[in-house]
Write a structure and sequence with these properties.
Length: 326
Protein backbone atom coordinates (compact mmCIF):
# COMPACT_ATOMS: atom_id res chain seq x y z
CA UNK A 1 0.00 0.00 0.00
CA UNK A 2 1.32 3.51 -0.85
CA UNK A 3 2.14 6.01 1.91
CA UNK A 4 -0.64 8.31 0.67
CA UNK A 5 -3.18 5.47 0.81
CA UNK A 6 -2.15 4.62 4.35
CA UNK A 7 -2.43 8.26 5.36
CA UNK A 8 -5.93 8.38 3.90
CA UNK A 9 -6.93 5.27 5.81
CA UNK A 10 -5.55 6.70 9.04
CA UNK A 11 -7.35 9.99 8.54
CA UNK A 12 -10.65 8.29 7.75
CA UNK A 13 -10.46 6.03 10.79
CA UNK A 14 -9.55 8.96 13.02
CA UNK A 15 -12.58 10.89 11.78
CA UNK A 16 -14.83 7.89 12.40
CA UNK A 17 -13.42 7.46 15.90
CA UNK A 18 -13.91 11.13 16.78
CA UNK A 19 -17.46 11.12 15.47
CA UNK A 20 -18.40 8.03 17.42
CA UNK A 21 -16.84 9.32 20.66
CA UNK A 22 -18.27 12.86 20.68
CA UNK A 23 -21.05 13.69 23.12
CA UNK A 24 -23.11 16.75 23.80
CA UNK A 25 -22.09 18.90 26.81
CA UNK A 26 -23.27 17.33 30.03
CA UNK A 27 -23.97 13.92 28.44
CA UNK A 28 -22.54 10.92 30.21
CA UNK A 29 -20.72 8.27 28.15
CA UNK A 30 -22.98 5.32 27.41
CA UNK A 31 -20.77 2.82 29.28
CA UNK A 32 -20.98 4.94 32.46
CA UNK A 33 -24.74 5.48 32.16
CA UNK A 34 -25.63 1.84 31.49
CA UNK A 35 -22.77 0.02 33.20
CA UNK A 36 -19.50 -1.27 31.78
CA UNK A 37 -20.11 -3.06 28.46
CA UNK A 38 -16.45 -3.40 27.50
CA UNK A 39 -15.39 -6.66 25.85
CA UNK A 40 -11.80 -7.84 26.24
CA UNK A 41 -10.50 -10.89 24.37
CA UNK A 42 -7.08 -12.50 24.72
CA UNK A 43 -6.05 -13.43 21.17
CA UNK A 44 -3.31 -16.05 20.67
CA UNK A 45 -0.14 -14.55 19.26
CA UNK A 46 -0.96 -10.98 20.32
CA UNK A 47 0.63 -9.20 23.26
CA UNK A 48 -2.37 -6.99 23.93
CA UNK A 49 -6.00 -8.11 24.25
CA UNK A 50 -8.61 -7.07 21.71
CA UNK A 51 -10.80 -4.48 23.45
CA UNK A 52 -14.22 -3.36 22.23
CA UNK A 53 -16.33 -0.76 24.04
CA UNK A 54 -19.47 -2.86 23.53
CA UNK A 55 -20.92 -5.67 21.44
CA UNK A 56 -20.17 -4.94 17.79
CA UNK A 57 -23.10 -4.14 15.53
CA UNK A 58 -21.24 -3.52 12.25
CA UNK A 59 -18.96 -6.45 11.45
CA UNK A 60 -16.77 -6.91 8.38
CA UNK A 61 -15.58 -10.44 7.61
CA UNK A 62 -12.46 -10.29 5.45
CA UNK A 63 -12.32 -14.08 5.08
CA UNK A 64 -15.06 -16.48 3.94
CA UNK A 65 -14.47 -18.87 6.84
CA UNK A 66 -15.02 -15.99 9.28
CA UNK A 67 -18.26 -15.10 7.47
CA UNK A 68 -19.49 -18.69 7.76
CA UNK A 69 -18.68 -18.83 11.48
CA UNK A 70 -20.44 -15.51 12.11
CA UNK A 71 -23.51 -16.82 10.30
CA UNK A 72 -23.59 -20.02 12.35
CA UNK A 73 -23.44 -17.91 15.50
CA UNK A 74 -26.54 -16.02 14.36
CA UNK A 75 -24.76 -12.79 13.44
CA UNK A 76 -25.54 -12.47 9.74
CA UNK A 77 -27.69 -9.41 10.37
CA UNK A 78 -24.66 -7.62 11.82
CA UNK A 79 -22.48 -8.21 8.76
CA UNK A 80 -21.86 -5.11 6.66
CA UNK A 81 -19.35 -6.72 4.30
CA UNK A 82 -18.18 -10.18 3.26
CA UNK A 83 -15.72 -11.40 0.64
CA UNK A 84 -17.14 -11.99 -2.83
CA UNK A 85 -16.22 -15.65 -2.52
CA UNK A 86 -18.62 -16.00 0.42
CA UNK A 87 -21.47 -15.46 -2.05
CA UNK A 88 -20.35 -18.45 -4.14
CA UNK A 89 -22.67 -21.44 -3.47
CA UNK A 90 -19.91 -23.83 -4.54
CA UNK A 91 -17.91 -22.77 -1.49
CA UNK A 92 -20.52 -21.53 0.96
CA UNK A 93 -23.73 -23.35 1.87
CA UNK A 94 -25.02 -20.04 3.27
CA UNK A 95 -24.40 -17.96 0.14
CA UNK A 96 -28.11 -17.17 -0.27
CA UNK A 97 -28.43 -16.03 3.34
CA UNK A 98 -25.49 -13.66 2.83
CA UNK A 99 -26.77 -12.19 -0.42
CA UNK A 100 -28.35 -9.26 1.44
CA UNK A 101 -25.13 -8.19 3.16
CA UNK A 102 -24.66 -4.56 2.00
CA UNK A 103 -21.06 -4.72 0.76
CA UNK A 104 -18.66 -7.23 -0.76
CA UNK A 105 -14.89 -7.30 -0.99
CA UNK A 106 -13.45 -8.10 -4.39
CA UNK A 107 -11.91 -11.44 -5.19
CA UNK A 108 -8.31 -12.02 -4.21
CA UNK A 109 -6.41 -11.95 -0.96
CA UNK A 110 -5.50 -8.26 -0.71
CA UNK A 111 -8.42 -6.41 0.91
CA UNK A 112 -8.16 -2.61 0.74
CA UNK A 113 -8.04 -1.11 4.25
CA UNK A 114 -9.42 2.24 3.03
CA UNK A 115 -12.49 0.54 1.63
CA UNK A 116 -13.02 -1.45 4.82
CA UNK A 117 -12.65 1.65 6.98
CA UNK A 118 -15.20 3.52 4.84
CA UNK A 119 -17.90 1.07 5.98
CA UNK A 120 -17.44 2.24 9.58
CA UNK A 121 -17.07 -1.23 11.15
CA UNK A 122 -16.85 -1.70 14.89
CA UNK A 123 -15.23 -5.14 14.37
CA UNK A 124 -13.26 -6.71 11.53
CA UNK A 125 -12.65 -10.46 11.54
CA UNK A 126 -9.86 -11.89 9.39
CA UNK A 127 -7.99 -15.17 8.98
CA UNK A 128 -4.39 -14.34 8.10
CA UNK A 129 -3.67 -17.12 5.63
CA UNK A 130 -2.24 -14.76 3.02
CA UNK A 131 0.21 -11.87 3.08
CA UNK A 132 -2.44 -9.41 1.87
CA UNK A 133 -4.78 -10.35 4.72
CA UNK A 134 -1.92 -10.02 7.22
CA UNK A 135 -1.08 -6.56 5.88
CA UNK A 136 -4.71 -5.44 5.99
CA UNK A 137 -5.06 -6.70 9.57
CA UNK A 138 -2.00 -4.73 10.71
CA UNK A 139 -3.01 -1.54 8.90
CA UNK A 140 -6.58 -1.61 10.19
CA UNK A 141 -5.40 -2.18 13.76
CA UNK A 142 -3.09 0.82 13.41
CA UNK A 143 -6.11 3.01 12.63
CA UNK A 144 -7.87 2.02 15.84
CA UNK A 145 -10.51 -0.20 14.22
CA UNK A 146 -10.94 -3.34 16.37
CA UNK A 147 -9.64 -6.35 14.43
CA UNK A 148 -9.98 -9.96 15.51
CA UNK A 149 -7.09 -11.70 13.77
CA UNK A 150 -7.42 -15.47 13.60
CA UNK A 151 -3.93 -16.87 13.23
CA UNK A 152 -4.69 -20.52 12.63
CA UNK A 153 -5.96 -21.85 9.30
CA UNK A 154 -9.17 -23.63 10.37
CA UNK A 155 -7.29 -26.83 9.45
CA UNK A 156 -8.61 -29.10 12.22
CA UNK A 157 -11.66 -29.54 14.42
CA UNK A 158 -9.71 -28.08 17.34
CA UNK A 159 -8.79 -24.98 15.33
CA UNK A 160 -12.41 -24.50 14.24
CA UNK A 161 -13.51 -24.72 17.90
CA UNK A 162 -10.77 -22.28 18.96
CA UNK A 163 -11.80 -19.72 16.34
CA UNK A 164 -15.48 -20.06 17.20
CA UNK A 165 -14.63 -19.36 20.84
CA UNK A 166 -12.69 -16.22 19.89
CA UNK A 167 -15.45 -14.93 17.62
CA UNK A 168 -18.04 -15.71 20.28
CA UNK A 169 -16.05 -13.83 22.93
CA UNK A 170 -15.63 -10.79 20.67
CA UNK A 171 -19.32 -10.60 19.75
CA UNK A 172 -21.02 -11.44 23.04
CA UNK A 173 -21.98 -14.92 21.81
CA UNK A 174 -19.83 -17.00 24.15
CA UNK A 175 -22.59 -19.43 25.08
CA UNK A 176 -23.63 -19.97 21.47
CA UNK A 177 -19.99 -20.51 20.46
CA UNK A 178 -19.42 -23.02 23.26
CA UNK A 179 -22.57 -24.91 22.32
CA UNK A 180 -21.66 -24.96 18.63
CA UNK A 181 -18.10 -26.14 19.33
CA UNK A 182 -19.43 -28.93 21.58
CA UNK A 183 -21.94 -29.94 18.89
CA UNK A 184 -19.16 -30.14 16.30
CA UNK A 185 -16.77 -32.06 18.56
CA UNK A 186 -19.47 -34.55 19.59
CA UNK A 187 -20.58 -35.04 15.99
CA UNK A 188 -17.04 -35.61 14.77
CA UNK A 189 -16.37 -38.08 17.58
CA UNK A 190 -19.45 -40.08 16.58
CA UNK A 191 -18.40 -40.26 12.94
CA UNK A 192 -14.85 -41.16 13.90
CA UNK A 193 -16.05 -44.00 16.14
CA UNK A 194 -18.04 -45.47 13.27
CA UNK A 195 -15.08 -45.05 10.92
CA UNK A 196 -12.81 -46.91 13.31
CA UNK A 197 -15.40 -49.65 13.76
CA UNK A 198 -15.45 -50.19 9.99
CA UNK A 199 -12.06 -51.89 10.29
CA UNK A 200 -10.00 -51.37 7.14
CA UNK A 201 -8.78 -47.85 6.40
CA UNK A 202 -8.55 -47.34 2.62
CA UNK A 203 -6.11 -44.80 1.23
CA UNK A 204 -7.48 -41.65 -0.36
CA UNK A 205 -5.89 -39.12 -2.69
CA UNK A 206 -7.48 -35.69 -2.04
CA UNK A 207 -7.34 -33.57 -5.19
CA UNK A 208 -8.64 -30.00 -5.38
CA UNK A 209 -9.05 -27.60 -8.30
CA UNK A 210 -8.31 -24.22 -6.72
CA UNK A 211 -5.76 -23.47 -9.46
CA UNK A 212 -5.35 -24.18 -13.16
CA UNK A 213 -4.11 -27.69 -12.41
CA UNK A 214 -5.29 -30.16 -9.75
CA UNK A 215 -3.53 -30.04 -6.39
CA UNK A 216 -2.89 -32.98 -4.09
CA UNK A 217 -3.70 -32.10 -0.49
CA UNK A 218 -1.27 -32.83 2.33
CA UNK A 219 -2.29 -34.03 5.78
CA UNK A 220 -2.29 -30.55 7.34
CA UNK A 221 -5.67 -29.68 5.81
CA UNK A 222 -9.16 -30.01 7.23
CA UNK A 223 -10.17 -32.10 4.22
CA UNK A 224 -7.50 -34.60 5.30
CA UNK A 225 -8.97 -34.72 8.79
CA UNK A 226 -12.39 -35.39 7.29
CA UNK A 227 -10.93 -38.38 5.48
CA UNK A 228 -9.47 -39.65 8.74
CA UNK A 229 -12.79 -39.09 10.52
CA UNK A 230 -14.52 -41.06 7.78
CA UNK A 231 -12.32 -44.11 8.20
CA UNK A 232 -9.76 -43.40 5.49
CA UNK A 233 -6.08 -42.45 5.29
CA UNK A 234 -4.64 -39.60 3.24
CA UNK A 235 -2.28 -41.23 0.75
CA UNK A 236 -0.13 -38.07 0.64
CA UNK A 237 1.76 -39.17 3.74
CA UNK A 238 2.76 -42.46 2.18
CA UNK A 239 4.30 -40.80 -0.88
CA UNK A 240 6.08 -38.01 0.98
CA UNK A 241 3.78 -35.11 0.07
CA UNK A 242 4.19 -32.71 3.00
CA UNK A 243 2.56 -29.61 1.50
CA UNK A 244 -0.43 -29.14 -0.78
CA UNK A 245 0.94 -28.79 -4.30
CA UNK A 246 0.18 -29.42 -7.99
CA UNK A 247 -0.06 -33.15 -8.61
CA UNK A 248 1.73 -34.93 -11.42
CA UNK A 249 0.31 -38.09 -13.04
CA UNK A 250 3.35 -40.11 -11.99
CA UNK A 251 2.80 -39.06 -8.36
CA UNK A 252 -0.77 -40.33 -8.43
CA UNK A 253 0.29 -43.56 -10.11
CA UNK A 254 3.02 -44.11 -7.52
CA UNK A 255 0.53 -43.46 -4.71
CA UNK A 256 -2.01 -45.93 -6.18
CA UNK A 257 -4.80 -44.78 -3.85
CA UNK A 258 -7.80 -46.97 -3.10
CA UNK A 259 -10.09 -43.96 -3.63
CA UNK A 260 -9.75 -40.54 -5.23
CA UNK A 261 -11.58 -37.58 -3.71
CA UNK A 262 -12.13 -34.65 -6.09
CA UNK A 263 -12.86 -31.37 -4.32
CA UNK A 264 -14.59 -28.79 -6.51
CA UNK A 265 -13.51 -25.38 -5.24
CA UNK A 266 -14.09 -23.43 -8.46
CA UNK A 267 -17.49 -24.78 -9.52
CA UNK A 268 -16.01 -26.24 -12.71
CA UNK A 269 -16.85 -29.78 -11.68
CA UNK A 270 -15.18 -33.01 -12.72
CA UNK A 271 -14.18 -31.56 -16.08
CA UNK A 272 -11.43 -29.59 -14.35
CA UNK A 273 -9.79 -32.89 -13.37
CA UNK A 274 -10.28 -34.52 -16.78
CA UNK A 275 -6.76 -34.04 -18.14
CA UNK A 276 -5.30 -35.79 -15.09
CA UNK A 277 -7.87 -38.59 -14.86
CA UNK A 278 -7.69 -39.29 -18.61
CA UNK A 279 -3.93 -39.70 -18.54
CA UNK A 280 -3.52 -43.35 -19.63
CA UNK A 281 -1.49 -44.36 -16.57
CA UNK A 282 -3.90 -42.66 -14.19
CA UNK A 283 -6.94 -44.06 -16.00
CA UNK A 284 -5.51 -47.55 -15.50
CA UNK A 285 -5.42 -47.17 -11.71
CA UNK A 286 -8.03 -49.43 -10.05
CA UNK A 287 -9.49 -46.43 -8.21
CA UNK A 288 -10.31 -44.87 -11.58
CA UNK A 289 -11.13 -47.92 -13.68
CA UNK A 290 -13.34 -49.40 -10.95
CA UNK A 291 -15.19 -46.14 -10.25
CA UNK A 292 -13.88 -45.26 -6.81
CA UNK A 293 -13.67 -41.56 -7.67
CA UNK A 294 -16.13 -39.05 -6.22
CA UNK A 295 -16.64 -35.32 -6.68
CA UNK A 296 -17.38 -33.29 -3.52
CA UNK A 297 -18.51 -29.66 -3.51
CA UNK A 298 -16.04 -27.37 -1.78
CA UNK A 299 -18.76 -26.17 0.61
CA UNK A 300 -19.05 -29.71 2.00
CA UNK A 301 -15.41 -30.61 2.66
CA UNK A 302 -13.16 -27.60 2.09
CA UNK A 303 -12.60 -24.29 3.91
CA UNK A 304 -15.08 -25.23 6.62
CA UNK A 305 -15.86 -23.14 9.70
CA UNK A 306 -18.84 -24.78 11.36
CA UNK A 307 -21.23 -27.71 11.27
CA UNK A 308 -20.04 -28.87 7.85
CA UNK A 309 -17.04 -30.40 9.64
CA UNK A 310 -19.51 -33.02 10.89
CA UNK A 311 -21.65 -33.40 7.77
CA UNK A 312 -18.56 -33.50 5.56
CA UNK A 313 -17.03 -36.24 7.71
CA UNK A 314 -20.32 -38.14 7.41
CA UNK A 315 -20.26 -37.84 3.61
CA UNK A 316 -16.73 -39.24 3.49
CA UNK A 317 -17.63 -42.08 5.86
CA UNK A 318 -20.62 -43.24 3.83
CA UNK A 319 -18.54 -43.06 0.63
CA UNK A 320 -15.65 -45.12 1.97
CA UNK A 321 -17.76 -47.42 4.15
CA UNK A 322 -21.33 -47.68 2.80
CA UNK A 323 -22.26 -50.17 5.52
CA UNK A 324 -21.46 -47.56 8.19
CA UNK A 325 -24.59 -45.50 7.45
CA UNK A 326 -26.64 -44.68 10.54
Amino acid sequence: MSRSSLAAALALAAAVTLASCSTAPGDEPAAEAAGDTTISVDVPGQDEPLVLPEEPERIVALSPDAAIALHELGLTDRLVAVPEVALNPTLNAYADEMSDVPHTLGSGTNPEPEQVASWNPDLVVVTTRHTGEQDASALLRSTGIPVLTLGNGWSSTDEVAENLALIGAATGREEEADALAAEIRDGVAGVRDRGEAAGERPTVAILSNQAHVPFINASDSLASELVTNGGGANVADAVGVRATMPVQPEQLVAADPDHIMLVDVTGKGEESFAALLHNPAVAALPAVSEGRVRLFAGRDVYGLAGRAVVTGSEQVLTWLHPDARE
